[in-house]
Write a structure and sequence with these properties.
about 60 residues, alpha+beta, 4-stranded antiparallel β-sheet
């Protein structure tokens, strides 16, 4: 599977964990948080059931 460019979540705690892990936040509003997927993220401590991957950047 090809690397998706963005990571999305609507969970506030998951967004906080992604920020703390150093991911660049592209958008945060309307209950949606979007981060750039660097492909080198270690997801320990992040509930991966609360994230989605996408190639589309929509607000």
């Amino acid at each position: 599977m090809a690397l998706k460019k963005f990571i999305k979540t609507s969970d506030v705690e998951t967004a906080k964990n992604l920020r703390n892990a150093g991911l660049y936040e592209v958008y945060g509003g309307n209950g949606e948080f979007v981060f750039v997927n660097s492909g080198s993220m270690n997801f320990s401590g992040v509930d991966t059931s609360k994230i989605r991957y996408s190639d589309m950047l929509t607000f």
